[in-house]
Amino acid sequence: MKHFGGPVLFLNRDDINTDEIIPAKYLTENTKEALKPYCLEDLKLSDFNPKRDLEGKRAILTRSNFGCGSSREHAPWALEMNEINIVVASSFARIFRQNMFNCGMIAAEVDSPTIDRLFEEFAGKETVLSVDLEKNRLHFVAGKTERQVPFILKDFEAALVRSGGWVRFAAQRY
Amino acid sequence: MGKTLAQKIFDAHLVDKPFGQEDWVLRLDRVFCHEITTPIAINDLVAQGMDRVFDPTKIKAVIDHVTPAKDSKTALQGKILRDWARRHGIKDFFDVGRNGVCHALFPELGFVRPGFTVIMGDSHTCTHGAFGAFAAGVGTTDLEVGILKGVCAFKTPHTIRINLEGSLRPGVTAKDVILALIAKIGVAGATDRVMEFRGPVVSAMGMEGRMTLCNMAVEAGGTSGVCMPDMTTVEYLWRFIGPQGEHQYSSKEEALRDYQRWISDEDAPYDSVVNLDCSALEPLSTVGYKPDQVKTIRELKNTKVDQVYIGSCTNGRIEDLRQAAAVLKGRRVAESVRGIVSPATPQVYAQALQEGIIQTFMDAGFCVTNPTCGACLGMSNGVLAEGEVCASTTNRNFYGRMGKGGMVHLMSPASAAATAVLGTIANPEDLK
Hints:
The complex is a heterodimer of chains A (174) and B (432). With 174 residues, chain A is an alpha/beta fold. Chain A has helices at residues 18-21, 50-54, 74-81, 94-102, 112-122, 155-163, 166-173, and strands at 5-11, 59-62, 86-89, 106-109, 128-132, 137-142, 145-150. The longest helix of chain A is centred in the last third of the chain and has 11 residues, at 112-122. Chain B has helices spanning 5-13, 38-47, 72-87, 102-108, 140-149, 174-185, 200-204, 207-215, 231-241, 252-259, 312-315, 318-328, 346-354, 357-364, 413-422, and strands at 14-16, 23-27, 30-34, 59-62, 93-94, 117-120, 134-137, 151-155, 159-165, 194-198, 224-227, 272-277, 284-286, 294-296, 307-310, 338-341, 367-368, 389-392, 407-410. The radius of gyration of chain B is 21 Å and the shape is globular. At the A-B interface, helix 4, helix 6 and helix 7 of A face helix 2, helix 3 and helix 5 of B.
């Protein structure tokens, strides 16, 4: 199982698409490792500088419909190669969410009022996320500010996270 | 309680429900592959000592995104796919000279039938639902398991019924309908849902129009678009399923009766119903960087463009080229515009040659490229420079999609052709 959590990158926008997470011109790479420097290169977000802002981050907090657009699994891989194994959002595009769990990563859905509150309380602060997979809880901490947030991990998704992804799960079962 | 088309397909393909009622593992009738998302799956299977395929007759592969190869990396991607297809005896592998845009090529070769389950590592796989199939884009891991085991997991196919009412005015096409619909429900309006296209507008459409509709289902977040199989579907497939082909049926009526197994029941449950009166629609275009940001072409008059691109899995089929050529006949592309047309498949290209359409494009000053995805995703054959604007018949206007810093206006082939002539966003009416 992968490690989940750590310093949080705040991406305050809806509908961040997979072209923004990893532009198509890098899809000609034949290894996941080669994607690392290009993660979020084309993100349309004011004051965002991927080189500076991704450094040391281990989790993303964002808003709705994250990962819409292309089916490219290069999007979760680009995150994974930057050691970001969990994205917390109010909703995800279907293929992106499935790709995350298929890779043994977590796409954690949290209702949008809670996402609003997390942005209000933590955005702009150095925030650390820890993930409790036993109790399905996210724990955000920034200095003295703390918040615990439940999230839903369905049985199938939890099984993929624990078994390290869909290939291993399916190779054994089918 | 009746069932939807998608639910009937799920019932007929169920292999396993590993966890409760919502998760279905389905048997696959088709696993489609291209050179961008498949090589990493192949490499992983090799690395894990599982370099096998579940059934080489159900796997179809094509090099389409960047072809012929533009550099060493794309050459390697092609080579990985080519070598893999050879060593596993995948006969339906389409290389340079026979290759075209996957979602135009595979239907044209009769690979998709009503009631099929189809996956591909490509989000626009939803296109194939036009045949009454359940067809969904997946990532590389799902593709890898599909190749190895012939199965894929999906959630229960909750369905939105979309009634396309009325009839289309002249100059209004399937592209305008789907843009209007995405504008209405939003880019996440159909997330985790099947979009079932119904009503007189769909019934009157040919397969090309239906494929355009289903192609952009994913731009509203939809898992698959679907149309009910009917006589139009049978006519399109007849050379494959009739006596000249596999002789699966001896008459069209027999084929139609069989395909009607897959039509949604009248009392099928729907997650929601969307009604769109199409009679009032006029030609549309996107603005901004999301496919649900849509305005009428009229509202965008005087918007200058640098390039016009006609092609792609959305609008690179023969019908699309005919519509564009009808506008271009006897006209020239504006001085300031680069016109590019990419027939989506060799068959479309040959047909367009035969009908004089290619000559019309060339006389108008268009560059004609080989069939490839190329410019649509900023890979090759028409990448934009920073600050440039392109009127395009493709499916995504995302920031940077056709080149970093470029702006893409999605529209129909007829509108794109009119725009090429005037150099500013226009529909054919504006040329009169």
